[in-house]
Amino acid sequence: MNHTESWFVDLLHKEGVSLTDQQLQQFDLYYQLLVEWNEKMNLTGITEREAVYEKHFYDSVSLSFFLDLNKAIRFADIGSGAGFPSIPLKICFPHLEVTMVDSLNKRLHFLKHVIEALGLQQMNCVHGRAEDMARLKEHRDQYDVVTARAVARLNILNELCLPFVRIGGKFAAMKGADPASEVNEAQNSLIELKADVQNVHHLTLPHEQSDRHIVIVNKTGATPKKYPRKAGLPGKQPIV
Ligand code: SAM
């Protein structure tokens, strides 16, 4: 085990996430593929091993510190990009049935390669805009937990993500240093989309010491038929 893997295993263990050698090998292979494919396509600005393990892997898994994923089955990641947070979470919680939605097909091409190389099961890659995919019966009001990291502000995300969540399920928005203004700005979108903020959790990345927040949103009722609006509109004319 190298130095990076050693702190990664120890810190996750302290948070109740224990990794086997096989899971650690899956993280290593994911790291190698990310760096290799990043030469051909834009996947991440971070490539140094220690930084990837902290800012992508640890950061992704941190969602599970605040939401018990052992109780979830159907899990969706909207705007999954190079696989964050869904691939690290799937490695740690292999029972999850994961759907990754992204409008950029070449990123999904990378994800399919990762899924095969790591031998991950029950992974569904969906190419399309969240606004369109959330209208399909197989996705609407279906998921126990939906997440998004680095995709949009919270009022926009509520419209993109809450339609996928089952009634009583959770949307976990992974946010940076200061989510307070986004949470304020999102009040009307929560009312419109039948949801409320359950909690805003804070964490600090272990080495870099930068702040992160995870906003947990409860879906209390079915998404009204008019949401999400036409593709592009949630971003252009956010609910305010
Ligand atoms: N979640 C990843 C992460 O944290 O590294 C990727 C973040 S990247 C900045 C945003 C991703 O969201 C891109 O891959 C983009 O194609 C996707 N995206 C943005 N808006 C979307 C939409 N309306 N529907 C589906 N995917 C979307």
From TrEMBL:
Its EC number is 2.1.1.-. Its main location: cytoplasm. It holds the Pfam family GidB. InterPro entries: rRNA_ssu_MeTfrase_G, SAM-dependent_MTases_sf. It is found in: Cytoplasm. It is an enzyme of class 2 (transferase). Specifically methylates the N7 position of guanine in position 535 of 16S rRNA. Belongs to the methyltransferase superfamily. RNA methyltransferase RsmG family. PANTHER family: S-ADENOSYL-L-METHIONINE-DEPENDENT METHYLTRANSFERASES SUPERFAMILY PROTEIN (PTHR31760:SF0). This is Ribosomal RNA small subunit methyltransferase G.
